[in-house]
Amino acid sequence: MAQVSAGVDPARSAVFAPLSDVGRAELVERRLQDAITSGVLHDGERLPSESQLGRRLGVAVVTAREALEALRDAGLIQTRRGRDGGSFVTFDPETARRFTDERIRALSRVELRDASTHYSAIAGMAAELAADRAGEEDVRGLRELVEQEDLSSEGGARRAVARFQLEVAALSQSPRLVREELRLQAEIGSLIWLGLREPDNRARSRAARVAELDAIGAADTEAARAVAVRRIAGGVEWLLDEKSRLEVAAESAEQSAPSPR
């Protein structure tokens, strides 16, 4: 059976995984911002307390507090006082889209392609080892998860992809690959899988996961690796196209803006 607990949501686990570069409020802010704008953290959801957040991310309480203050100023969370108080997600589609677009435009094409190379290497090796090491029960368990996926929304599709990626890493029987998959999901997963906002891409993504699963079940290591790499590359190519679209739109808006007198 697949090795990730049925009660675990890998996308959420990635959000609260320890940071490798500790002590920076900006990293905590970006991690939570990505999770909110991508729908992994839901509107109205209560976040961990400052002390809990610091402990889970491996940062000081003051660092977690600064990140939450920045998210509050950005309108992504609100804080309520009292017995049932805390910090709660305030998801607004327009605000989320604006933050996501700004993040895409801020990243260079070199950074995005480098991220694709790195993630492809990890996902490809995980799929190859899974095809070599997974048993029939493992494959059957993973197939059941794929069949139960909810692709009706972008958030649901993201969670389905995150879970599949982590399950395959678990089937590789390499703890290091599992940890690296989790880290990459937290760092760039919200961007690489941004194309899942489009229903057609959700369907194509599921078909690719089924093809990868079939290759793992057939113990075809080469095919499993190839499909995994193509899935990552496809996500990044969509992202690069979206970056170009945003840049063209920004340039057009700038040209059409009235010039100062």
Q: How would you describe this protein?
A:
By secondary structure, the chain is mostly helical. It folds into 2 domains: 16-99, Arc Repressor Mutant, subunit A (Orthogonal Bundle); 107-250, Up-down Bundle (Four Helix Bundle (Hemerythrin (Met), subunit A)). 70% of the residues lie in helices and 3% in strands. The chain contains 11 helices and 2 strands. The protein has helices at residues 10-15, 25-37, 50-57, 61-73, 93-106, 109-133, 136-147, 154-171, 175-192, 199-217, 221-256, and strands at 77-80, 86-89. The chain has a two-stranded antiparallel sheet with strand order 1-2. Helix 6 packs across helix 9 and helix 8 runs parallel beside helix 10. The longest helix is centred in the last third of the chain and has 36 residues, at 221-256. The protein is globular. The N and C termini lie far apart (69 Å). The mean pLDDT is 88. InterPro entries: GntR_C (IPR011711), TF_FadR/GntR_C (IPR008920), Tscrpt_reg_HTH_GntR (IPR000524), WH-like_DNA-bd_sf (IPR036388), WH_DNA-bd_sf (IPR036390). GO terms for molecular function: DNA binding; DNA-binding transcription factor activity. Residues 22-92 form the HTH gntR-type domain. This is DNA-binding transcriptional regulator, FadR family.
Topology:
Blueprint: H1 10-15, H2 25-37, H3 50-57, H4 61-73, E1 77-80, E2 86-89, H5 93-106, H6 109-133, H7 136-147, H8 154-171, H9 175-192, H10 199-217, H11 221-256
Antiparallel strand pairs: 1-2
Pfam family, one: GntR
GO molecular function: DNA binding; DNA-binding transcription factor activity
Organism: Microbacterium azadirachtae
